[in-house]
């Protein structure tokens, strides 16, 4: 949507009119730019497009005749340069979703017992399990820690060891708690 200032500037650029006249025309047209243009054309303050004005009901205008100014106005205000903000947001959100899905499928979550890998799932599957079945997934992971299982993230996009260090710390804490309960 164009702001009021943009509409006023657009009207001023179409003819030799002041900001006051442009604002008055927009006020008379309830903020509608096209109606304000027609209003100013009727007053003779801006020139009608070649081929006749579309506001005059007495003239018949061939449906195939479109003025250069009208095409230019449509391109400036409805062209692909100014995309709808909501559509732009949806497009960006979709691109982010696809990027995360690709990374989630390229990297995996591994379950280890000792040094042996007992299972591996893509991170996308782990996230889905945590979202839709967290009441089962989280308790099973905690119980697994007490049975000597360890967890880690592996893949090309896993940089650093911060998350894996945190998982090792949780496994060590579970091991220490288990040892202290045995005493």
Describe this structure in words.
The chain is mainly α and about 180 residues long. The chain has two domains: about 80 residues, no CATH class; about 80 residues, no CATH class. Helices cover about 60% and strands about 10% of the residues. The protein contains eight helices and three strands. The chain has a three-stranded antiparallel beta sheet with strand order 2-1-3. Strand 1 and strand 2 form a beta hairpin. Helix 1 crosses helix 2, helix 2 packs across helix 3 and helix 6 crosses helix 7. It is rod-shaped. It starts with a helix and ends with a helix. The relative contact order is 0.06.
Strand order of the largest sheet: 2-1-3
Structural class designation: mainly alpha
From the alpha-carbon coordinates, what is the Rg to the nearest angstrom?
33 Å
Principal-axes geometry comes out as rod-shaped
Number of strands: 3
Poorly predicted sequence stretches spanning 5 or more consecutive residues: 55-75
Number of domains: 2
Mean pLDDT: 82
Q: Strand fraction band? A: 5-15%
Order of helices and strands, N to C? HHHHHEEHHEH
**What is the rounded distance between the termini?**
72 Å
Q: Could you give a short account of the major beta sheet?
A: 3 strands, antiparallel
Helix content: 55-70%
Number of helices: 8
Keywords: Membrane, Transmembrane, Transmembrane helix
Protein name: DUF4342 domain-containing protein
InterPro entries: UBA-like_sf (IPR009060)
């Amino acid at each position: 949507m164009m702001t009021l200032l943009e509409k006023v500037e657009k009207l001023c650029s179409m003819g030799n009119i002041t900001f006051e006249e442009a604002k008055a025309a927009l006020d008379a047209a309830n903020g509608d730019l096209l109606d304000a243009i027609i209003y100013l054309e009727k007053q003779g303050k801006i020139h009608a497009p070649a081929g006749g004005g579309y506001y005059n009901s007495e003239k018949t205008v061939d449906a195939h005749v479109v003025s250069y100014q009208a095409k230019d106005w449509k391109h400036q205000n409805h062209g692909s340069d100014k995309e709808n903000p909501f559509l732009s947001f949806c497009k960006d959100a979709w691109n982010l979703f696809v990027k995360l899905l690709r990374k989630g499928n390229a990297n995996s979550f591994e379950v280890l017992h000792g040094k042996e890998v007992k299972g591996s799932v893509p991170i996308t599957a782990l996230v889905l399990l945590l979202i839709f079945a967290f009441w089962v997934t989280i308790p099973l992971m905690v119980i697994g820690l007490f049975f000597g299982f360890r967890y880690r993230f592996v893949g090309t996009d896993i940089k650093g060891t911060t998350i894996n260090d945190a998982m090792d710390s949780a496994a060590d804490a579970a091991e220490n708690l288990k040892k202290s309960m045995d005493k």
